[in-house]
Automatic annotation (TrEMBL):
PANTHER family: XANTHINE DEHYDROGENASE (PTHR45444:SF3). It comes from the Bacteria. The keyword Metal-binding applies. GO terms for molecular function: 2 iron, 2 sulfur cluster binding; FAD binding; iron ion binding; xanthine dehydrogenase activity. Keywords: FAD, Flavoprotein, Iron, Metal-binding, Oxidoreductase. It comes from Pseudomonas fluorescens HK44. Signal peptide: none annotated. Residues 192-365 form the FAD-binding PCMH-type domain. SUPFAM superfamilies: 2Fe-2S ferredoxin-like (SSF54292), CO dehydrogenase flavoprotein C-terminal domain-like (SSF55447), CO dehydrogenase ISP C-domain like (SSF47741), FAD-binding/transporter-associated domain-like (SSF56176). Residues 1-90 form the 2Fe-2S ferredoxin-type domain. Pfam families: CO_deh_flav_C, FAD_binding_5, Fer2, Fer2_2. This is Molybdopterin dehydrogenase.
Amino acid sequence: MIQFLLNQELRSEHALDPNLTVLNYLREHLGKPGTKEGCASGDCGACTVVVGELQTDDSGREHIRYRSLNSCLTFVSSLHGKQLISVEDLKHQGQLHSVQKAMVECHGSQCGFCTPGFVMSLFALQKNSDHADSHKAHEALAGNLCRCTGYRPILAAAEQVCCAKQPDQFDAREAETIARLKAIAPTDTGELNSGDKRCLVPLIVADLADLYDAYPQAKLLAGGTDLALEVTQFHRTLPVMIYVGNVAEMKRIERFDDRLEIGAASALSDCYDALQAEYPDFGELLQRFASLQIRNQGTLGGNIGNASPIGDSPPLLIALGAQIVLCKGETRRTLALEDYFIDYRVTARQESEFIEKIIVPRASAEQLFRAYKVSKRLDDDISAVCAAFNLRIENGVVADARVAFGGMAATPKRAKSCEAALRGAPWNNTTVERACAALAQDFTPLSDFRASKEYRLLSAQNLLRKYFIELQTPHIETRVTAYV
């Protein structure tokens, strides 16, 4: 059985189909049609809902953290122990919520189809903001698409709800909601079981390892932003899933003198502060990783584990010399991330083995790390090419070089010929041009709808030239840049 709060209503579910998304649960099982299906792939934001989780801050104060999610990519099993809020829950005692009023007063809705999703994104923004912030507003709304308004009135609504923030029914009932969430906090493995399909929800790594050993054919479910597409886009059935999002050990982010240890189930939005503090370019790239709804859901371990050749984080992690800890039963092994990727969607992971955490070396003053993402849109888009450069230059000579790319091969991959052309050579234009030529030895890119092979290779070479220019003239730095 799993339990969660639907606004303030306790829901206990056991026999639901584990392949059921929150979107379809709301619409088809609960008769709440305000949440819309636009794309069923997490791109349009029409299905946005907000999920509340009990958190304890550094001072020990308990509070509820509200996050926007794409309900079309969220399986119901991931709600275990949480609070689900949909657009129907905002109106209170016959009065519109302040974010709904702002959309009306700022003329932020025309046809209205996308409006509930915008309202829920604005609600989460208001809950997580103390004042108007244009950057945060754009970030909060980048995952919501509208064909009618041109966005200006919606941004005006965002400014209004953050400037004139008013206490609401959720604030008034916070203490009660915290108590209710504590009362339903999971104490053992939860399960949804429809007879022919099941999803197991362990709480500790040891139980996860035992379950995965017992069900090696199971699909591990973390954020689900990739796995859920199997159901919503390809209409496949997932007979057994194991949800790792309630394993607290795999959501820790710990700082040590020489490294960061990031639990594989840590949401990308949770990774931001730690990675931004060490590597500003990594932080900037994370802000361009899909949308806020996806970053609130998707995990760093999942972005590695799905072995996509265009995943944004692996090239950066490879350039930084990151490692992963793989767990199978009681056995653990540490593997350099670059050795994890074998071929297209093929990895070094053994049967019943899973990524437990990612180890990222902390930054040093000698490192010159930069990352670049080439995509057709600035926000909410997949890379055509993603590049990461990590050089150490001593007395004008390249002492060490790690260069990695995504989108250039069947796997995220180091450019070893390029590195060899750089290492031990003077850091000048001649060396850079020789290294650019070497990239043609490292990669034979494919052409697809995102970019041609010629464009990809030239882009990769130009990014190395860009890196060189930026290091020579830091004042013109633009870092994580989109090329259209």
